[in-house]
Specification:
heterotrimer, A alpha/beta, B alpha/beta, C alpha/beta, A: alpha/beta, 2 domains, 15 strands, B: Alpha-Beta Plaits, Rossmann fold, seven-stranded parallel β-sheet, five-stranded parallel β-sheet, 22 strands, 27% helix
């Protein structure tokens, strides 16, 4: 994939509208979802990805396109990303996409990005490490495979881009330490939450974002095999949902009245009941 | 059953039960369902009463009373004859020529699953200098270990490992493939699942088997841990899953492990690969401070977020042979770095002893530490969620409790040695 | 920011959005700033709306799928003592036919969002998550725009409409409206209690689209000057109770305790039994009445809605006064733009319109009511107790003759209140609402 002549970056960010998971719960008695007043927000990792993309084009020149697959309401997260400085926004919305798991989602997104790239070559795709509703972290990597881009997950820092050599250098947080790795563009990065903090958009940017027309693409627009979208293209299905098992509380030592006594009681009890554990942890020399 | 104006018996959504998974929308042959304010809604006039939405709904949020049994619906692109696929495979992750703990946990789990399915346990090992790992895999219970040993595999690269694992799956055709939900494992699993166009379920905390249908039942937390979901991969193989470290039991060594080791050739890919410029290991003291590995954690909560007292918590941790960690507000306040954060967006921990100091216990925090063996909560609020699930709760002001705890523990330790 | 607008509106609640809709129809370039994440996130009311007033802004609100909870077919009034009370209701089938949507309940978060979306679809720019921190003024002190808390956040406008509610920090800063005194404000708390729609329909005797409102007075506010209410929504009941802020302070009662006692009252408990509390909110209500209304317009600005203290406590009217005043502000602005005169004189039409309308007329009529209620605490303790005593006595069948019962009741009442006091009370009550 060649770059456009002006040697600037074209970055695509994939963003997702998710329920604010702090509010979503299951009623353990009736096993029903308690959804009253649950607000939708932009997946926090995706906001970081968009901010990182905008910072890159501020550094190297170019533009950022944001894409989201979701229902019509997902427009609001696209506008949030436009306000950060993205230039264009595309909503992938179609009944045919409904019920998609990560395999079908990455397929639809890859079709959309291929279409975007055919008009304006793409250098980089930035995704959040995971979405806070599904928590799988699978869509980004799956997308990289389908597009054939170099994949870099758990990116904690984007060291730099070399436009002449067509390479990117990033830091990844892996087992045991930080890896500094260089790959060729086009590449796909999934970013960590602390890669950067996001800006508070200026008023002109807010207004521009609110006014901007958002393209909407359906299954017919992005081409591909219809049986690989949505439910039909999803190998996994949810059999059932339930409330997480709740640990039961144990012993309580109230120290508000007689502090010393309560603490002594606790230590006595703890050392008595958990002697085996303590020996295992602290060894026979005991400290 | 309710009827529409044309007199046709129709299905209806129970709003309180709908989880907005949109499976019904995808199934409806006449597009009679759409989303209204986050809940599925059936257009009564368009509904033809076929019941497909009722069949596919995973949470019984559809009322439909035609007398017929709920059918198991197969979806997704079918893999070639499922019967071709046999065996429970485990990807053995290696670091510095040693197998990762989670991989052995998975071999142990694989043995149980394989027994119910009356099939074999397979190990996939990639790396360099990994013969000892392959032997250990046999010792832990693998019936067959497939080994690909090559210096080029010393460091993990998605493309390279991904290609090899895909080839192995095509060759060996396991019906199940398990990987540890480590950074490497989750990266690799997605690469493989996408190439094989099969289903992958991430970060599972429970596995079981429907032996009759040869289905893997994968249970995992979603929505930050607020909801548990059991997922199936009905028509695609292998059924893939990444499993959370520390959840499955470590298996015992089988003294007369009679597994065989098969070595496979490695073909270097002819494309340009990413270049690793540097690796900055966590300094030994820092590595020793990896909260996900610590056996004891003293976790600083929002109520104890005070720089003046940090040394006191560190002392308690040191005394117990552990390290300090914290909840998200403490990181946001800038008191401790992100690497110390326990939580959905931080690290999942399962220490032997978790001591929470003024941690209230938001769900996103609880889900990342409720695997701890013993939980001690120190809090002024006896109604705090963490206190409700703690094995031992000390109610009071941490400023007074912690110093006394330190003295008390020291005294008891001295009396045991002295 | 460089771009200027004709009108800047602070607040995307009923007042601000009503004005925006009218302005958009007149093709006037309008921008609305809302401090919440979305319109309605910071708003709370019973919530009851009046179709007539909404129709003045959006005649086709039903065709536009206005999120109506229940169409109210019966209004009840309760006068409660601790163990019981009187109930008076009026139901009419005309409220399901010709006068459908005369009164209906809404959920504010849903309604405000829908309402703002109507304005947006007419071309109004609504900017959420943005606080207006100050007003822009020119050298002569006239308002020429607003300052928001964002970078490059100054925006010029020919006219600014302040519609940012009772708690307006902006009003405090700019001094357009004095900080309300505690006696001029009521603190209200509201609990939304979930119940299946069939249960609600059974308990209130209504069909699936219809509902009931109950306005409540008496000892339910523990002797404080206040009211309570129960409204039916589709799948929930709204329970609201509030009292004068100054009373809360002097009686030292916690709002949460007030709600709990309210829910346990023998006439309330059966209506909410087996229901599940979904949410709990608190809000201020303007109670100062006519005398608390500030200067409603000046050079370059107007004030509408709760921010202008336009609230009729007796008739539970706040949202509709907000809508009406928003509309009148908009009509005034349209005139002003035509004449290119945004001075106090040029905006004087607002004051005139308000004075001519039921808004000011009603508030003037009930001008003394607020003070009357605040100072006559016997309405909230002694009278309900005595009334209940009378009712209990009359309804008890114990062989005592009716005449004796009457005597007993009169004697008991006279012991506490002389006839003279009672007549004076009735005379003052009459005068307060004239």
């Amino acid at each position: 994939m060649g770059r456009s002549e002006d040697n600037k970056l074209h970055i695509v960010c994939c963003v997702k509208q998710v329920p604010d998971t702090a509010q979503v719960k299951i009623d353990p008695e009736t096993n029903t979802l308690m959804r009253s007043g649950v607000e939708s927000i932009c997946n926090p990792y995706d906001l970081v990805a968009t901010e990182a993309a905008v910072q890159l084009i501020e550094r190297y020149g170019g533009k950022v396109t944001v894409v989201s697959m979701g229902p019509p309401q997902a427009e609001s997260v696209l506008r949030e990303c436009l306000a950060l400085g993205a230039e264009e926004a595309i909503l992938l919305s179609d009944r045919a996409f409904a019920g998609a798991d990560t395999l079908a989602t990455s397929y639809a997104l890859s079709q959309a990005i291929s279409l975007i790239a055919s008009n304006d070559p793409v250098d980089l795709v930035l995704c959040g490490r995971q979405a806070i509703d599904g928590d799988t972290g699978q869509t980004g990597p799956g997308l990289a495979i389908r597009l054939g881009y170099d994949l870099f997950t758990y990116v904690s820092e984007i060291v730099g881009v070399n436009l002449d050599e067509n390479t990117i250098t990033v830091k990844r947080e892996i087992e045991g330490g930080t890896e500094v790795i260089e790959g060729r563009l086009p590449a796909l990065l999934t970013v960590e939450l602390d890669l950067t903090s996001t800006r508070y958009a200026s008023l002109p940017d807010m207004v521009r974002a609110l006014r901007q027309a958002i393209k909407s693409w359906g299954a017919n627009d992005i081409g591909g095999s219809p049986e690989r979208f949505g439910l039909k293209g999803s190998p996994t299905s949810v059999k059932e949902i339930f409330a997480p098992p709740v640990r039961k509380g144990g012993l309580v030592f109230d120290s508000t009245e007689d502090k010393d006594q309560a603490i002594e009681d606790f230590l006595d009890t703890f050392f008595e009941k958990e002697m085996e554990l303590l020996v295992e942890l602290l060894g026979s020399e005991g400290g | 059953m309710p009827k529409n104006s044309k007199g046709r018996e129709i299905a209806e959504i129970i709003p309180q039960k709908c989880i907005a998974c949109q499976l019904c929308i995808g199934q409806c042959p006449v597009s009679a369902i759409d989303m209204d304010g986050g809940i599925a809604r059936i257009d009564p006039e368009a509904c033809i009463g076929c019941g497909k939405c009722f069949d596919i709904c995973p949470v019984e949020a559809v009322t439909f009373e035609k007398p017929r049994k709920k059918k198991m619906v197969g979806i997704g692109q079918k893999t070639r004859p499922l019967d071709d696929y046999r065996g429970v495979a485990v990807f053995i992750e290696t670091h510095e020529e040693r197998g990762a703990d989670v991989s052995w946990e998975l071999v142990g789990e694989a043995k149980e699953l394989a027994e119910k399915l009356e099939t074999r346990v397979l190990g996939f090992v990639l790396g360099t200098g990994i013969e000892t790992v392959a032997n250990k895999a046999v010792a832990h219970g693998c019936d067959v270990v497939y080994m690909v040993d090559n210096p080029l595999l010393q460091t993990y690269l998605s493309k390279v490992y991904g290609r090899i694992l895909v080839q192995l799956c095509d060759q060996v055709k396991p019906e199940i493939l398990l990987l540890g939900a480590t950074p490497l494992g989750r990266d690799l699993a997605t690469v493989v699942a996408t190439r094989l166009e099969t289903g992958l379920t991430a970060d599972c905390t429970g596995l079981d088997v429907d032996a009759q249908n040869r289905l893997l039942l994968m249970t995992r937390p979603t929505f930050g841990g607020n909801i548990m979901a059991t997922v199936l991969c009905l028509n695609n193989r292998p059924q893939m899953s990444t499993v959370r470290p520390g959840v499955m039991k470590m298996p015992e060594i089988v003294s007369n492990g009679r597994g065989e080791i098969r070595t496979l050739d490695f073909e270097a890919p002819d494309e340009v690969l990413p270049r690793i410029i540097d690796f900055i290991p966590k300094a030994a003291e820092v590595e020793g401070e990896d909260i996900a590995k610590a056996a004891v954690l003293v976790v600083v909560g929002k109520g104890a977020c005070d720089a003046r007292h940090l040394s006191m918590f560190e002392e308690l941790a040191r005394l117990m042979g552990g390290t300090i960690a914290c909840s998200r507000p403490v990181v946001e306040a800038g008191l401790l770095p992100y690497m110390r954060q326990v939580g959905q967006t931080g690290k999942t921990v399962a220490p032997k002893i978790y001591i929470g100091v003024a941690v209230s216990g938001a769900v996103q925090h609880l889900v990342a530490m409720q695997g701890a063996h013993r939980i001690i909560a120190i809090n002024i609020d006896s109604n705090a969620p963490l206190v409700q699930i703690a094995d031992y709760a000390l109610i009071g002001d941490y400023l007074e409790i912690v110093p006394k705890l330190i003295k008390g523990i020291e005294a008891r330790m001295r009396s045991r040695t002295g | 920011m460089k771009e200027a607008f004709d009108v800047a509106i602070v607040g995307a609640g009923p007042a601000g959005i009503s004005a925006a809709c009218i302005l958009a129809e007149a093709k006037i370039k309008t921008i609305v700033f809302e401090r919440g994440e979305y319109p309605g996130s910071k708003n709370m009311s019973g919530a009851v709306l009046y179709g007539h007033d909404l129709a003045q802004i959006l005649p086709d609100y039903i065709e536009r799928n206005c999120p109506v909870e229940r169409n109210i077919v019966e209004s009840r009034i309760w006068y409660l003592s601790r163990e019981g009370g009187y109930s008076l209701g009026y139901r009419d089938s005309i409220f399901t036919t010709d006068l459908k949507y005369n009164v209906f309940t809404v959920l504010r978060a849903k309604f405000d969002r829908w309402y703002a979306e109507q304005a947006r679809s007419k071309g109004v720019l609504i900017v959420p998550s943005t606080v207006v921190i100050d007003l822009l003024r020119n050298d002569s002190g006239a308002v020429v725009g607003v300052v928001t808390g964002r970078r490059d956040g100054e925006i010029r406008a020919k006219v600014t409409l302040l519609a940012d509610g009772i708690n307006s920090p902006l009003a405090a800063r700019t001094g357009f409206r004095a900080e309300p005194k505690p006696e001029q404000v009521a603190l209200a708390v509201k609990e939304t209690i979930e119940l299946p729609s069939e249960v609600i329909e059974q308990r209130f005797g209504v069909s699936s689209a219809d509902g009931v409102t109950i306005e409540i007075l008496g000892q339910i506010t523990e002797g404080m000057d206040g009211v309570a209410a129960i409204y039916t929504n589709r799948n929930s009941l709204s329970l609201a109770i509030g009292a004068n802020l100054a009373d809360f302070a002097s009686f030292k009662i916690k709002p949460y305790e007030l709600v709990e006692t309210f829910k346990q009252h023998p006439m309330v408990a059966p209506l909410i039994s087996s229901g599940k509390t979904l949410e709990y909110m608190a809000h201020w209500l303007p109670e100062g009445g006519y005398d608390a209304i500030p200067d409603l317009y000046g050079d370059g600005y107007l004030i509408a809605g709760d921010s202008a203290m336009l609230f009729n406590a007796l008739h539970r009217e706040g949202s509709n006064l907000a809508m009406a005043s928003g509309k009148m502000a908009a009509e005034t602005i349209v005139e002003a733009i035509r004449r290119d005169d945004y001075s106090r004189k040029g905006l004087a039409g607002y004051g005139e319109r308000l004075a001519e309308s039921y808004v000011i007329k009603d508030l003037r009529k009930y001008r003394r009511l607020g003070s009357f209620l605040y100072h006559r605490k016997e309405i909230f303790n002694q009278f309900p107790r005595l009334a209940s005593f009378a009712g209990r006595e009359m309804l008890t069948v114990n062989g005592v003759s009716k005449k004796q019962k009457q005597k007993l009741i009169l004697n008991t009442v006279r012991k506490e209140i002389s006839m003279f006091r009672l007549f004076r009370f009735l005379w003052q009550a009459w005068r307060s609402i004239r």
